[in-house]
Write a structure and sequence with these properties.
By secondary structure, the protein is an all-alpha fold. The chain contains two helices and no strands.
Length: 91
């Protein structure tokens, strides 16, 4: 009888080990999929950033005065907003 119990215990341990191995494989597959997705997204983001930078360079080359005026107007607007927010918090 003790040998039967020992045999069942061994079988249960093997089942648990097999399930742990299955879970480990599933986690590894999910990790690999996630890693590939992140890698693909980063590649797309890099390409989009390069295209945006090229676009900006082209606009600067084509219309330098307009771009300088646009940046100055944006900086001025940002300064106004920052000043307004800081002024509100100090009241």
């Amino acid at each position: 009888m003790p040998s039967e119990a020992f045999g069942r215990a061994q079988e249960q341990v093997r089942d648990i080990a097999d399930k742990a191995k299955e879970i480990s494989n599933k986690v590894r597959e999910q990790w690999d999929d996630t890693y590939r997705d992140v890698e693909r997204s980063m590649r797309r983001a890099r390409i989009a950033a390069e295209e945006s930078a090229d676009d900006a360079r082209r606009h600067i080359r084509d219309k330098p005065i307009t771009m300088v005026a646009s940046v100055a107007a944006g900086a001025f607007a940002l300064g106004l907003v920052a000043g307004f927010i800081i002024g509100k918090t100090r009241e």
